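Sample log: Alpha/beta hydrolase.
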Amino acid sequence: MYMQPFMLKGDGHEYHGYCGGDSNKPLMVLHHGMTADALAYSSLLEELKEQFHFILLDSPGHGRTPPYLNEEKYHFTELSKNIFRIIAKLSKSTFILVGHSWGGDLCLHIAKNFQERVLGVVLLDGGYVFPDYASLTKHQSLNAWKEYLKNNIYDNWNEVISVYQDYTTKKWDEALNATIASSFKYQQGKFMLISEEFTLLSIIKAFYFELCSSVHRFVQCPVLLIHATIPFIDTSREDAIENIKKSITNLSVLSISNTKHNPNWNHPELVAEEIFKWIRTVVFTDAND
């Protein structure tokens, strides 16, 4: 599917993203997770392109959007307001939000702060576990990410694939290759993530500054949580699901078997089908009441 790239300025910062799909259809705005970029949704959008108009953003420090220089700007309340200003420049319509991992938390804050514009939120294994149920202190999480970044440097692309294959239950193919390729840069003979340490550690600090559970009770629109099922026994996930059920009134929870942290990588056709069914039967039904 062709997506029209754009670069827009807001709050003194430039934001890169894409528009695509059918402009006569309902608007869906998608936010990626940490270290990824807007193109992480490529396979999912292929399944939904006939039903929706899309806006996808590279969040600050990811893809082609430059990083913030101030770590407080990554705090969810401020980030959600800055991102919404860009969405508002592109469309005056109401919209459905989709967010994976960190992007899910961002979606919930946008839904809290701009209730009149958000019809519904789809959480792709995000917005409910970390850091509240992760059993990691802020210090431990920051150190873990520093170690991850130190080890996430590769001599060749096959090394990248061998690591990222473990993030999905789907056999590696060209679609998955395209999904991650734009998240990397080739520098000094090495492949490394475009997202740098300052950006990623600032985001981790933002998680602890505004816990995901603190925003749940303010979300008034319908929410669909599609969560991972691998590992099969995960008490943090189970506890987090019970908590979000208590806080968000209009919540649907869906588990997809044989799914790791990237449901839209593992089963894009099934995830698209479930999203479309939920939007048709829950979101638009509520909007018409």
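Observation: Residues 268-288 form the longest helix (21 residues).
Observation: The chain has a mean pLDDT of 96.
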